[in-house]
């Protein structure tokens, strides 16, 4: 049997590293240590594994989960072998935390080391709005895998106020506290149901990662 699909570039990447890029679209994680992953992000695994629902982690997280169903989308992965993560052909990246912290739009999350501290965070009182306004803040020592629906752009928020569509924001500096800007003029031009009538407002020393898309979830609803 012959086909370009069997070329070496498409074979599994053999590595002793825990976090390995299988390709620009797929992440390979080796086990031992446990990891937490977004439900639906696992596309394949080899070995013996247990995938268990992960609770909200605290009373405050439980209350936020009850309102938004965020935090109920994590699973704990334990076992021996390797697990492959991807999300709708999005570009995949890893971020190594070295005692610092980052906030991630849950729609962009793939997986992270269970050794990292995590909590669900909200943006003001905007939890009932669509577009990922409940997010995951990670801190400590470990690695997180994220997905961007297209090549990402990094914006420096320290120079001037920065406004981002909620569904286009992938992650940002945890020290930034974004607000919500409701642009009624823009909403009236585009349509009252459009997410563009709301933007996340960032300003301060830090960055925000923006994808060139409103996200896979938004596209699926069209």
Automatic annotation (TrEMBL):
It comes from the Bacteria. Gene3D superfamilies: Mitochondrial biogenesis AIM24. Pfam families: AIM24. Transmembrane segments: none annotated. PANTHER family: ALTERED INHERITANCE OF MITOCHONDRIA PROTEIN 24, MITOCHONDRIAL. This is AIM24 family protein.
